[in-house]
Structure formats: structure tokens, C-alpha cells
Design goal:
Oligomer: single chain
Distance between the termini: 48 Å
CATH topology: Rossmann fold
Structural class: alpha/beta
CATH superfamily: P-loop containing nucleotide triphosphate hydrolases
Largest sheet: 5 strands, parallel
Shape: globular
Number of helices: 9
Helix content: 40-55%
Number of strands: 5
CATH architecture: 3-Layer(aba) Sandwich
Order of helices and strands: HEHEHHHEHEHHEH
């Protein structure tokens, strides 16, 4: 699937899904589980590769009829939010870092974008809304923290050695290792600052995640199978817990 086809397919699925109201849960019925996955990652740990490997696997094994999975990375999130009448410039302000207060203030004053707080709220609201519907894999955007109150999520952290990540970034960017290392450090530092500033939390804390995967010697296909198995158990446990609650209430 080309990048263009992938984006168009993802947008059409998201738009159709968000237009469909969620059915109310009947009294005494077991609440339906709306599963989703969040991928937090060190730069170069392979979130994009894993996400696109994971989607067809989840579609085959954990997708009811009419509920295709979608990988929501930066490109798709930007396109989806822009189509919901948010400014086209939103792409520059998606929260992977704390934007310079001077830059943010100037942008707000000249009408380039809403306030920084409003932008972050819009992004968080969109993530929560899509997580409520389910069958989405989120990459980044502190989605594991934004959605931590929802029962259907599996939260995954991807890590790898610095040398491995530098090599991967150099390959993707087509640059030398020194430039790749600088990009890696700047990006990781930005993500840490954003999570610390907005959630008062350390993004590297393993207790925030259900699963931490070291992709040094783990292929994307193998990592996808691990995530699929963990998500299957999460869904089964959620259904069991839902049945227990329903039995108590009846």
C-alpha cells in the first residue's frame, strides 16, 4: 500500500467511524470492548514500521466486520484534524514538544492558530474520541497518557540501543551518523519535555506501559505478533471483568 493510498484509506475509515454514533449499552449487558493500541517510542525504535506491520495482523485476527484498524501517525492525524476545520498550520504545532512561548504567542496574535492550550486540547480530544470508538493504533502524541482512563487500551513502549537507533535514523534521513545522532537527541529531548510539561511524568518510566519492547534484535513482524497476543489478552480480560460487573449489578 503506497503512502497516498494508506492516508486516503485511513481518512475514509476514520470519517465513517466518527459519523456512526456509538450504541448505548443495554442495562445488564456486557459493555463492548473498543480496543486500541498506543505506541510510545524512542526515536528510531521502529514505531512506524511496527504500526504498519501490526494493522493487517489486527485486521485478520482482532477485527469484527466493518471495523478495520487504522494506524494513526503524524501524517494521518494532521490530515484528519485539518479536515475537521482546524487550521492547516496545525501540523507545526502538534504536541511533541513544548512550543516556544514567544513563537506560540506571535502565532496566536496574528491569527495563525488558536492558543497553545486550545491546540493541545483539540489534539487530546480527537485522540480520546477515536480511542472511544476503538480499532486504532496511535503513534506518539502522549496518547498513552491521554487515554489512560480508557479500559480498552494496550500501551506499548519501544526502545532500542542508541547505536541501532542512530543507524536507523541515518538510513531514513539519508544522512551521516553525526547528523542522525543530533536529530535523535533533539527529538527525544523534545518528547521528554512535552510529557514532563503537560503531564508531570517521565516518558521513560516503564510503569506507564503494559509492554516494553526492545527492537534491537526483534523484527517488526515478531514485535507485531507480541503486541497482537497482548491485545487479545487485554480484550478477553476486559470482557471477563465486564461480565463480572454486570452479574453484580443484576
Amino acid at each position: 500500500m503506497t503512502a497516498h493510498t494508506y492516508l486516503e484509506h485511513g481518512l475514509s475509515v476514520l470519517q465513517a467511524r466518527l459519523r456512526t454514533p456509538m450504541s448505548p449499552v443495554a442495562s445488564g449487558a456486557v459493555p463492548e470492548i473498543h480496543p486500541f493500541v498506543t505506541l510510545s517510542r524512542e526515536t528510531g525504535a521502529g514505531a512506524t514500521t511496527l504500526g504498519r506491520e501490526l494493522i493487517p495482523l489486527l485486521d485478520r485476527e482482532l477485527s469484527p466486520p466493518g471495523h478495520s484498524w487504522v494506524f494513526l501517525d503524524r501524517d494521518l492525524l494532521t490530515r484528519a484534524l485539518t479536515q475537521h476545520q482546524l487550521p492547516a498550520q496545525l501540523a507545526d504545532y502538534l504536541p511533541e514538544d513544548r512550543i516556544s512561548e514567544i513563537r506560540a504567542g506571535i502565532g496566536e496574535l496574528v491569527g495563525l492558530h488558536p492558543s497553545l492550550w486550545q491546540l493541545e486540547q483539540k489534539v487530546s480530544e480527537a485522540i480520546v474520541q477515536l480511542a472511544h470508538v476503538g480499532h486504532v493504533v496511535f503513534a506518539g502524541r502522549a496518547s498513552h497518557l491521554v487515554t489512560r482512563h480508557l479500559a480498552g487500551g494496550l500501551h506499548v513502549r519501544l526502545i532500542a540501543s542508541r547505536d541501532t537507533r542512530i543507524d536507523r535514523v541515518a538510513t531514513v534521513l539519508g544522512c551521516g551518523r553525526a547528523q542522525a545522532a543530533a536529530h535523535l537527541d533533539a527529538t527525544d529531548d523534545a518528547r521528554r519535555r512535552f510529557v514532563r510539561a503537560n503531564f508531570d511524568t517521565d516518558i521513560d518510566d516503564p510503569h506507564l506501559y503494559d509492554l516494553v519492547l526492545n527492537t534491537d534484535h526483534l523484527s517488526a513482524a515478531a514485535a507485531a505478533r507480541v503486541v497482537q497476543l497482548a491485545l487479545r489478552e487485554r480484550i478477553a480480560r476486559g470482557q471477563t471483568e465486564g461480565s463480572s460487573v454486570s452479574a453484580v449489578r443484576s
